[in-house]
Amino acid sequence: MRYTEGVSLRIVRFARLAFFIVVASSCLDEADCIRNADTALVIQFKRLLDGKNDTLIFYRVEATGTDSIFYGQSPDVLDTLRGTPMILSVNPNTPVTSFSFYLPVLEYSLSVEYDRSARFISEDCGSEVSLNNLRISFTDFDSVRVINPILSTARTVNIEIYR
User: Fold this and answer.
1) Rounded CA gap, 40 and 90, in Å?
2) Sign of CA dihedral 52, 57, 63, 69
3) Domain ranges of the chain
4) What are 151's strand-pairing partners?
5) How many CA atoms lie within 13 A of 127 on its CB side?
6) How does pLDDT run across 140-149, given as a tens digit for each residue?
7) Is 155 exposed, middle or buried (0-12, 13-18, 19+ CB in 10 A)?
8) What phi and psi, each to the nearest 5 degrees, are found at residue 104?
9) How far is CA 103 from CA 58, 60, 76, in A?
10) pTM for the whole structure
């Protein structure tokens, strides 16, 4: 290898390295909009006898006082959750959200309260409302337990309902 070939190879390597550094550093100017807050309330139905996940057969679930219908969009068609959690959305603009569960024979209600706190992320990303300290304010289910009092993007089970 001649001296000029070695110098040319070093220049090419240096130019590539400089290019990658410029490209990588340009990404640092973009806003990092990491959000942790979520309005998803995750409910797991369990069997009272053995604590295993329960199959829930229902017509629909509604947020009381709104036109929000979760699951079962048709009022006359049964829907089924086979041991999987139900994900509902709470209203981040109020401290309480109430739900009505329409099952084949009975209707149940569940009202949850939560504390709201705003967090400013950045000028580009804005802010988010965190919902925590989840608690049951009313229910006519037999046994309800708050497992995780924080609503987050991790979407872990917040409430267990034993039937």
Assistant:
1) 7
2) positive
3) 1-30, 40-162
4) 131
5) 7
6) 999 999 999 9
7) middle
8) -55, -35
9) 4, 7, 11
10) 0.76
